[in-house]
Amino acid sequence: FIINNSSKQAIDLFNEIKDPNEIIITLFFNACAQLGTGKELILLKSISSKISNSFYSDPYVVTSLIDAFMKCGDVTSAEASFDRSTKKTTPVYGAMMKGFIINNLSQQAIDLFNE
Questions:
Q1: Structure confidence by residue, pLDDT tens digits, 5-48
Q2: Which is the most buried residue in 57, 86, 92, 103, by most CB within 10 A?
Q3: What would the mean pLDDT of 45-64 be, rounded to a whole number?
């Protein structure tokens, strides 16, 4: 669904899954990022508040969550997810820097790069 720009259907399907794993959650975050509306932001906040702390050690999950928050315009939640991440890989940093840039916060992207 996501590849075919049918993110709404992917989100509907996600809502039917009782116990999603890391892959399903990553795909859900990607679908929310593709749509990037306030409705998806509400879903992101709801799901991210319910996932286990172990998900924050998976850089794929964290990268997709940060990307989704940033594309929905919620820099604060993206920063909180970044801070909560236990494995800050290059893609995790990249998602933060790209998110800062798309939200017109270029200086914050530069500052993060310089860390």
A1: 667 777 777 777 788 888 888 988 988 898 888 888 998 998 89
A2: 92
A3: 91
51: its two tokens: 């996932």
Integer distance in angstroms from the first to the last C-alpha of the chain?
A: 37
- As a whole number of angstroms, the distance between CA 68 and CA 44 comes to 8
Length of the chain as a residue count: 115
The candidate with the shortest Cα–Cα distance to 76, out of 48, 114, 54, 55, is: 48
Q: Output the pTM of the full model.
A: 0.86
- What residue ranges do the domains of the chain occupy? 7-114
CA distance linking residue 4 with residue 14, whole number of Å: 16
- Cβ neighbours of residue 13 under 8 Å, at least 6 residues apart? 1
